[in-house]
Amino acid sequence: MKLPLSLLISLALFCQVSLADNGKLTVATFIEPPFSYLVDNKFVGEHVDVVKKLLEPLGFTPVFIHCPFARCLSLVKQGIADMMFGLKKLPEREEDLIFINPPYMEQHYPLHFFTLASRNIAINGPDDLNKLVVGVLRGASYFDLFDNDNIIAKVEFTTRKQLVDMLLLGRIDTFIEREDSILPLLPFVEYTEKISLANYQFDKVTNAYIAISKQSGIKVHAERLSKQLHKLVKSGTIKTIRMKVSN
C-alpha cells in the first residue's frame, strides 16, 4: 500500500529522534530519471544505489520518501528528512545543510530548452528567452546567468512531468531540463514528433553532492560518511554503479 506524502511526513516527524537509533535514515527523494525513479513503487537508479552503498557499511538503512524537489529540500532543511542526494552546493543551502565531500559524481548532461516543434520557436542565445514564458522546477538551480536573470518570465512547477504537460498544452513557451530526465516521460514517437531542442544550451560539468540536515542527528556521522564516500569514489565503486545502471 502506498502511503500519502502527508502521512509519511507525519511519521517522519514522530520518529525523527529515533531514526538514527534504529539504524534507519530518511532520504528525501525526487524523480529524476535515470538517477532516481520509481519501479513498482520502489526507488531505483544510480543515485539510489550510491546512497545504499554509502550507508550499508555504517549500519544505516535508507528509507526513501518521495517528494517534489522543492519539498524534498525543505524537509531536509527542517530535519524532517535526514539526507538528500543530487544537489548542487550553494552558499544559501550550506546554511541548513552539511554537504558530504567529495562530490560523488560529475554531471555532464547539457541543460536544454525544450519547445514545441509545431511553434518553430528560435532560442539561439539568452536574449531570446526574454520574450518567452519559461517553465522551471521549483527550488532548482540551473546556471548563474539564467538563475540570476530577473527579466525572464519564469513559471515554477513541482515536477518534470508538469513541465512537459504545460508545454504540450501551450501554457509555457519552453522549459529547461536535461534530456535524459525528460525522455522517459513521453512515448518516444511523441517526443520526436512534438518536442524540439533549442540551439541555446548550457553545457558545463557540475558536481553532484549528498547533503545531510544540520537539524538531524545524522550530522554527528558527517565525518564517517565523508570517509566512506571517499572510499567509494577512490575504489571505482561509484563508477561501476553508473556503468551498470546505464547499461
CATH superfamily of the largest domain: Periplasmic binding protein-like II
Structural class by SSE content: alpha/beta
End-to-end distance: 31 Å
CATH class of the largest domain: Alpha Beta
Number of helices: 9
Helix content: 25-40%
Beta percentage is 25-35%
Mean pLDDT: 89
**Architecture of the largest domain, CATH level 2?**
3-Layer(aba) Sandwich
pLDDT below 50 for ≥5 consecutive residues: which ranges?
Answer: 10-18
Order of helical and strand elements? HEEEHEHEEEEHEHEHHEEHH
Could you say what the CATH topology of the largest domain is called?
Answer: D-Maltodextrin-Binding Protein, domain 2
Strand segment tally:
12
Task: Compute the number of structural domains.
Answer: 2
> How do the strands of the widest beta sheet line up side by side?
4-1-5-12-6
Main sheet makeup? 5 strands, mixed
Shape: elongated
Describe the structure.
The chain has a 5-stranded mixed beta sheet, sandwiched between helices. The protein has a 5-stranded mixed beta sheet with strand order 9-8-10-7-11. It has a two-stranded antiparallel sheet with strand order 2-3. It contains 9 helices and 12 strands. It has 247 residues and is of the alpha/beta class. The two termini are 31 Å apart. Helices cover 32% and strands 29% of the residues. It folds into 2 domains: 5-107 and 206-246, D-Maltodextrin-Binding Protein, domain 2, CATH 3.40.190; 111-202, Periplasmic binding protein-like II (D-Maltodextrin-Binding Protein, domain 2), CATH 3.40.190.
